[in-house]
C-alpha cells in the first residue's frame, strides 16, 4: 500500500486526512476526524499522541465502543473474512491463521471466557508475538479486573495505532 508523506497529510483537506487515517483505530474514523483540527504535526509521534488524546478525552461509552470495535483474535469475523485489511495482516503476521486444531480450540475457549468476564474482546498488538505467547497472555490477563483490562486494551490499541501510522505515513527526513 502506498504511504503518504507527513507533509502531504498535513496539507490534505480534512476529509482526505480523515479518510487516509480512518483505519488507524479500528472502525473509529471519529478519532482521525477530530485529530485533523490540530494540524500541522511535526512528526508521527505528535500525530499519534494527538489521536490517543482524542480517545482519552472521549466519554467512557466511546472508549468502550472503540474496544468493542476490535475483532476477536481468529474469531468468527476472521473465519468469515470480515476483518479489516489491517487486522487481517496483523493476525496473519502472528500466525493466527495457522493454528493447530488444539490451539484453535484453546483460543476460542479463551476468547469466550474473556468475553464473558469483561464483555469486550481481548486486544493485543500481535506484532512480536507468537500463537503460544498470545494464548499465554490471554490466560494471564483473564486474572485482571475489568478496569485494569480496559486500560490494558486501550494501551494495546495505542500500540496497534502507532504500528499502523508507521505503515501509512512517511516521516520526512530533513526539512519539510
Q: How would a crystallographer describe the biggest sheet?
A: 2 strands, parallel
Spatial order of the strands in the main sheet?
1-2
Number of helices: 10
Structural class label: mainly alpha
- Beta content: under 5%
Shape: globular
Low-confidence spans? none
Overall helicity: 55-70%
Rg, Cα atoms, Å:
17 Å
Determine the N-to-C terminus distance.
23 Å
Number of beta-strand segments? 2
Give the averaged pLDDT, no decimals: 89
User: Which series of helices and strands comes N to C?
Assistant: EHHHHHHHHHHE
Question: Can you describe what's shown?
Answer:
- This protein is 61% helix and 2% strand.
- By secondary structure, it is mostly helical.
- Helix 4 packs antiparallel against helix 10 and helix 8 (101-118) runs parallel beside helix 9.
- The chain is built from ten helices and two strands, in the order βααααααααααβ.
- The chain has helices spanning 6-11, 14-20, 30-35, 44-57, 60-68, 76-79, 85-93, 101-118, 131-141, 146-168; strands at residues 4-5, 169-170.
- A two-stranded parallel ribbon has the order 1-2.
Spell out the blueprint of helices and strands.
Blueprint: E1 4-5, H1 6-11, H2 14-20, H3 30-35, H4 44-57, H5 60-68, H6 76-79, H7 85-93, H8 101-118, H9 131-141, H10 146-168, E2 169-170
Parallel strand pairs: 1-2
Q: Care to give the gist of this entry?
A:
This protein has 176 residues and is mainly alpha-helical. It has ten helices and two strands.
